[in-house]
Amino acid sequence: MTLEADIALRQGNFMLDARFTAPDGITALFGPSGSGKSTLLSALAGLKAASGRITLNGASCGQIKPHRRGFGLVFQDARLFPHLTVRGNLAYASRRAPARFEIAEVAGFFDIANLLDRPVGNLSGGEKSRVALARALVAAPDFLLLDEPFAALDGARRRAFLQVLRTAHQRYRIPMLVVTHNIDDAAALASHLVALADGKVVAQGAFADVARRPDFQALLDRRDIGAVLPASALRSAKDEMVQGLWLRADHVLLAARRPEAISARNILEGRITGLRSEDDGSVLAELETQAGPLLARVTAEAARELKLASGKTAWAVIKAHAV
Amino acid sequence: MSPVEMQILATSFAVASRALLWSLPFAIAMAFFLSRPQMPGRIILDGLTHLPVILPPVLVGLVLLIVFGRRGPVGGLLDQMFGIHLAFTTAGAALATAVMTFPLLVRSIRLAFEATDARLLEAAAVLRAGPWDRFLSIALPLAGPGILAGTVTAFAAAMGEFGAVITFAAHIPGQTQTLPLAIYAVLQEPGGEAEAVRLALISFTVAMCGLVAAEFLQRRARKRLAG
């Protein structure tokens, strides 16, 4: 299932004009707040009128009413129906779905089986998010849109939810477009990346390719600048099943010789492909490793002492807490 | 209560419940329509709905008499086709009451619709619920307690409708003589004050019961929806 969109809409002074493709799999829709991510999702789902073209697997669906369009949407604020129990919410979706999911099975998968008969009013934030996601899945959408579904969660609960989301994707095989402004979440979830700024798509494509583009890096906070590595390339301190890990340049140390007797768990050998002096006096070194490109931030002084130069071999040392 | 008083009370209940039964579906439809901000022609309909509040009730009764009287355009048609007479009947009293309580009913139901989260309707739409489905499965149940409370209040008010009823339906004991009409009638007789006070007390008790019931229903609903 491939989603293609080329849509425009105006909202006061804000103009959204987005053209992108989201292939099968999980695509992250990344952008700073105010870039129009939620508006774009609403337009895709048909909740906001937009001009242009939306196709699912080549079939145009931009003119179809939201309830027949085949998009599912998980809202930031869960939007569970307060007059129904958890089971009632799931059954609401199931009754109207073209394909039936066993509610008990889905509830078991999302770890909400013991909540089924509870009213939704007194669920915790994490529980609400899981119920909202389960409800959206039970509706058996052709394509699932998620609007920062973990915005209300923090720390461990957030990571747990990311996990659930990824496993759900693999298990139920529903393609997803996930809105986030958190680069870690994006890297953990998505294989494909669409970057949005000021209502326009600035970059899109395979995650790792987009992530290294300067126009994408320009969207990031200075502290967030980094690169993505496939999770399989690293020995992670947290035993999680994620797509990739976002390694901030600030969290990567560079060594000119192979480091020994060191506590860091992950050491990657690579060749320096570029050095960029930053305004603050630091140097961003781009390193090509077997696992992919990496960015490391070093001081100008250190860069001189280590005699860093393009083409030279260096070792990237990644602290465990960074992964 | 004396048998006469019982009869008056029964007439009042019959008139008020028929009035509510007829106007409720229209009131719900109108209230939902008025609660949608994007609907065109909202201001005009809102004004029309509230006309009976602003017009003198006697005038409303007169208009009903002209339109629904036996020689009126609608009344004549009803007479010829179905043999239905509205003027000076219980049904007529109910019609006059329905018209008078309609604005009150619409207003409270509209508040109930406006208090329900429109974003939940969006959520239902992306779960494949069509417009009617969304209305029946989300909007109506969420507004339900408010609708019920509004109906109970309107019922209490309907029991006390006077001007339009007496103009359109007159006061015929056993048919159109409701509580306020009876109070008015006994006041016309010398020495009727004591009976008028008795009837007023009954009227007051019924109204209070209605208001308390409405408040109770609303509180219970709030608690339920808050989880």
Describe the structure.
Chain A is of the alpha+beta class. Chain A has two domains: 3-220, Rossmann fold, CATH 3.40.50.300; 230-322, RNA polymerase II/Efflux pump adaptor protein, barrel-sandwich hybrid domain (OB fold (Dihydrolipoamide Acetyltransferase, E2P), Beta Barrel), CATH 2.40.50.100. Chain A is 26% helix and 33% strand. Chain A contains ten helices and 17 strands. Chain A has helices at residues 37-45, 66-69, 86-96, 103-109, 125-138, 155-172, 183-189, 207-211, 214-217, 300-305, and strands at 3-11, 14-22, 26-30, 51-56, 59-60, 71-74, 143-147, 176-180, 192-197, 200-206, 226-230, 244-248, 252-255, 266-277, 282-289, 292-299, 313-318. In chain A, strands 6-7-8-3-9-10 form a six-stranded mixed β-sheet, with helices on both faces. The longest helix of chain A has 18 residues, at 155-172. The two termini of chain A are 32 Å apart. With 227 residues, chain B is mainly alpha-helical. Chain B has one domain: MetI-like (MetI-like fold). Chain B is 80% helix and 0% strand. Chain B is built from ten helices and no strands. The N and C termini of chain B lie far apart (43 Å). The relative contact order of chain B is 0.15. The A-B interface holds A 45-47, 65-68, 71-73, 75, 77, 79, 81-83, 92-93, 96-97, 119-122, 135-136, 139, 141 and B 117, 119-120, 122-131, 133-134, 137-138, 141-142, 144, 224-227.
